[in-house]
Amino acid sequence: MKQSTKEVAAVAAEAVQASGDYLSEAFRDGPVDGEYDSVDVKAVADREAERRIRSVIETQYSDHVFHGEESGRADGRQDTESHDYRWVVDPLDGTNNFASGYPKFATAAAVLKDDEQIVAAIYEPLIDSLYLARKGQGATLNGEPLHAESPLSLAHGTVALVIGLSAVTDPPLAQQAEALELALRDRCKRVVPTWAPCVDWGLLARGSIEGLVCFHPGIYEQHAGSLLAAESGIDVVDTITEDGRYIGAPDPETTDRLCEVVDETI
Question: Which of 136, 148, 189, 259 could form a disulfide with 250 if both were Cys (CB 3.0 to 4.6 A apart)?
Answer without folding.
Answer: 148
